[in-house]
Amino acid sequence: RVRPASTPRVGFWPVTMSYDEARAMVTHYARLGYARHVQTTCATASRVLGNDPALSFWGVFGIVAEGSYGEAITKLEGQLSGGDKEMDLACMACITHAHKSARVVDWEAVGGYETRMASAEKSASNGALVEFALFHHLADGGDAAKAKDTARRVLAMDSSDSRAKTLLGWIELTGIGDDDPNKDDANDAATASADVVFSGNNSRRQRAAKALRVFDELLSSHDLGGDTQIDALVGKAHSLTALSRYDNAVDVMNELAARHPGFAPAASEKAKARLAACDFSGALENAEAGLHADNDDTECHRIVVFLTLTRAGDYALARKQITALTLALERREPRNVKLLVETSSQIARVAGGDVGVLQACGILLEKASALSQKESPVVLLEMAHQLRFLNKTTDALAVYRRCARFANESRDARETQTQRIANSASYGAALCFLRSGELQDCGSELEKLKENGFDQNGVPFLSALAQMQHQRNLAGADETANALEKALSLFFQNVNKLPPAVDFFLAADPDTICRCALLFTERDFTGDMIGVSNGASSSSGRDTKACADSENNTNSVDLDTMRSASPRNSRTLEALCARAPGLIMAQEFLMRARFASGSVDAAQRTAEVLLQLKENHAEAHVMLGRIHVAKGDLDAARRALDAATANDFAVRQTTAYLVVSAQCRAASGDTAGSLDELEAAMSRPGVRVAMKRGTSSVPVSTADRASIFVSYANALHSLHKADEAEMVLDEATSVFAGTTVEIFVMIARCEAAVKRGDDTKALRALASVTPTSPHYPAATMALAKVHLKSRNDPKAFIRCHVDLAEHKPGDVNSWLLLAEAYGTVGAPCESVTALEKAQALTPNDPEIARTLGAACVATHAFQKARNFYELAERLWSEVTVGPSRERSTTSTTSSTRPYGSSPYGKHTTSRAGMRMELAVLYKRLRRFDDAERVIFSLVGSEFGDIQEGSRDDDQAQRVQKNTPNLSSTEIERNVNALKLLCAVKTQRNDQAGYLRALRNVKVFQEMWVQKAQRGLGETSQKFVDSAKRALSKTCAELALRYASFHDPETSLKLYDEALMHDKNSLTIMSQVADLKLNVGDAAGAEIVLQQITRLDAEHETANLMLAELMFLRDDVDGAFFHFRELLTKNPKHTTALAQLAKLLHRAGRLEEIDFFFENAERALGGAQRARSNPGFAFAKGLVAKSNRNWDQALEYFNRCRQDPFFFVEATYEMTEIYLAPFSFMTKKFSTLDANTKKQRAIAAEQILREVSDQRIEPRHTILSAYCLMSLGEAKLLDQAFELCAQVISRDADNAPALLATAACFDLQKLGAKAKAQVKRIQKLPRRADEAEAFESAWLVLAEQAFDAGKVDVAQDLCQKCLRFNKSCSEAWEIMGMICERETTSIDAAECYENAWRHCKQNDPGIGFKLAFVLFKARSMVQCVDVCRAVLQKFPEYPKIKKDIMKKAQMAIKP
Fold first, then answer.
1. Which positions ≥6 away from 63 have C-beta within 8 Å?
2. Number of Cβ atoms within 10 Å of the Cβ of 370
3. Tens-place pLDDT, residues 783-835
4. DSSP codes of every residue in 86-103
5. Does pTM top 0.85 for this prediction?
6. CA distance 1424 to 504
7. Under a CB-based contact definition with an 8 Å cutoff, are residues 297 and 13 in contact?
8. From CA 1170, how far away is CA 1158, in angstroms rounded?
């Protein structure tokens, strides 16, 4: 039937709806059991679309489903007489079903209708048969098997009937109407919530796969009807969900919503699909959209309540939403008992023990009970569960017994359903007996379950839990804990196969899971709890980052893959919190469990999550106080206690608060006040005498009780009350005798004896523990500690660990402890041997392979270490099947590893940490490609490819898009990995790669700071400041790189950003001032330097730069004053001495340096010691180089090359002396013979080779190019040009590189190109760090201008040189040549005299020119003096003697 679309909105109908969509809605609601929805939909559709026999029939079906059998029979008989043959068969079947369901059955009428039905069935049409089969399938009565037979009969007559195929698909998917619908009932298993659920998961998945094939075949056909298509799409989505293909199910529901907007349940079904796919925000969005369209959509209401409880943890809001849900149920399904019970059950499982939410659930159950015609076992069972959740075990037990009695007496329900209810009641009663400590009665209930054949997964789990609770004080607790662990493994393997949303919590009762975690904590980490409670750092040393990794996995709770991430006491809790971070009760237990296991950082994160969920959570504040005490941050601990008191003043009377307060007082020296607090704690209930089970308050754990006793005794000892302390320890020994903490009381007594100096007594007491005692491992470890710390006997320390390993040769942890002991005493080879034995016991454990790799690195067996690290990576890849990436694999990976606590304890670490270690090893082995591959595996999945040329803003947006929800731990991991990549790029001489990696470090650090400031990660101000300082340091490092590339604008922006994050960093401010000085911004540099001196008036670097600034302003005396003040206070400041030498040289007053050298010699202990000081020798070498005393300069520089600080700089200075790179294009350099140049180049190359070839600074590359140029070979000139091109490609404005390129062109006789490069330098702004290159370029251009007759240009260039360097003898020489040509000889003589003075009379050419102009000026005496000075140093210079000196002497004679 095809009817026109309806446009008006009626009731909860959409604006437009077709007849096909109405029929699909009826089928959908009938399948959900929403009887009143079926009636309303049929009535509204008939009113809007017109009367239709099918809609009329299904409307009456809704009346039958609500239990109004008489009214329904009357209406069906009327419709039967109406004459619509298509619906007659279904009407007769429905009448028969109504009669059988009535309280008083009219068997005569039943017989009559069955006879008529059998007759009509033989001649019925296909349409009538499909309606008949659909009724039996949806009614789910005793004749449900007829549905499948009838559908097959229809297909036998017409194989293309799509409605029959769709019905067969649904029968295959649900099992309703199957030949043997209860064939898997034998595999029923109990859950932690005491509900018996269907556990035939394998057969259910097989049925879902078959149904999916049917639906896919249907949807691929082109003649599919509208309502059939909708039903097939919904069936396909449900099949995909059953197969754990959640993302595909979401896609199907999106397709349904797009194709059929009039299908009202589409919003809720899409929300359910997204909920199963763990797309919680999408599910909430769809549910809210459904409520916007229909405010009474009960399914959307249920999803919103579920998400509020499990994700937000807002119980007040949840109670309001439950009220709205209750009103919606009253309006839409006022008589639906099953829906009321189901809704109450789902909400109660995630109520987290909140009384208000559970009371609201109880109201729903009361409504269901009132609607039931008689007392319903199903309602009673759920009432009992919720009473147990409220900790009312006595009332719950009474209801469980009533439930079991009514279930056993019931005869109108199917036998399997009755048995399930009875088993669930027995299971719940056993849990109640277990909670109240009545273990004998608990055993009776377990035996009853076994008698009923219920022995698959539930009974072993509950048996192990009961046995562990009973034996936790006895020696057999280890085996019992392992049994419970295995039972939990089987249980979670079964639960993990359920859709990861509502169904998961229906099976997993958080209350029972938390009880298991509490027992594991008391069994495994009692010692750690004592250590942490006493303010010590975590004795277990576990890597809490692994806990953080497990926190971030919100899409999967595969406990087996979390095995090496968390201890067993917190693993199941992490599973619950991953699915439901808003479950406050589970978060509380997880916080306690993590703190107990020593994972204080993870416990702190959990406490902060609790405070985000509930700001006034006093216990979380107190836990933060305990954590801060464990970390030694007493101020933060006091603030946490103050916050707890502000939120709940009654918290001051809790045991935990008193203990933390006592520890804070003790640390501040208030021992008496600490003792008062501990006395108050000792008087609290549950400390001296254990609190009874079942009480509503949080019990004090056995470990915390022992910790209070020990702390109290220590406080008494501190106040010299030894007798009272001994009495307290005696009491503790008596109280905790036979418990797991007995040994730790003994250890406390031994420690007290050691403090008194009686270590012999302690050793004797610990040695008395025999190997047969369950406390032998703890006693042996304590004995080893006394031997090492008190006796300083490493041999006895090792012997204790060897005894422990030999005592349990099959215990991996013993061998790992032995390996750690060997490492403690400095025996890495023996440590490797012990680790190899541990690996032989568990060859498939990646953590041990990683630890072996680290140990081999310590022994310098790098190749062996690489093999172990690669083995660890392979093993980890085999173990970890990424559940967060492929949700559909959750059910298949649970059996890949046995569930259990990691035997490696404190040796566990994250896979990311192992990869970092492997990358460092590859870098050390210079396998850079492998190192980069491993680094990219760390950051690649979230970070994406590292792109070149992208701006910082673009890169930040790209990274944040690819990594929207990174945790602080993951960001820190990526930052460290990228920093390592920077180091690799540096060693590869890849400056561009280094810069890209460093920019990406900055991007991730910005994310880190933003997360910290928003409070999404660690929220302490100390952490925020630390993150900002790290970001500031990275910005400064980037700024330095950009400054070296002559990009001061970008560099200054980065420096501004660095100072924004760390505004008082004097180091960064000094770098900013230095950059501004380099680019000539004297005013800007002065402002920054003034800021530095205001913060630190004695800042040496700032004072040195102020002196340089004054020199640039020609205030030489002022600059000299700063140096004199600094060197007067610290004459041995050789760095300042070297800087002063450079400034005085440029000021033309180098002779004034001698006074400071004399003071430095005296301060260093005499001339002999001063000569051996590398800093002093370097400064002397600079002076000798400025004076052109080359041999003496080489001697000084060579002397300081043994010092690592001065080695590189001294080597470069010596290389420049040999090569004279800044005079390559001058006339004087061209006069040197080729052999001299070659010898100097060979010597320079040998010296330069001593500096690593991997250095990437431009100065090293440019000096290498000059070495090649000096050798004079044509092919080497090309190599030199390539080296210069490398520098210019990275920094186009590098003046030394441009000058070296010009020199290369000049040697190749390409004068025009050489001049173009020099002119390019002239156009650049001068930089102080490249001053010599600029001066050399100006001098070359000045020589060329003088030769070309451009005297004014040459004079300007020389004056420019002299403005920055008054000791530039070459500039004075050219000025003299200009004066000699243009003016008088007197002016020329003055210029030549300055040149002669500043070169320290070491240039015979300048001496000749000076003597010549003096001769011309008739200053014969001065002329002779100059000639004699030249001949004294250069006797081989005969020309001056013959042409000038003799003539001057003759002129002097009368």
1. 35, 39, 71, 72, 75
2. 10
3. 888 888 888 888 888 888 888 888 888 888 888 889 888 988 888 899 899 88
4. HHHHHHHHHHHHHHHHSS
5. no
6. 108
7. no
8. 10
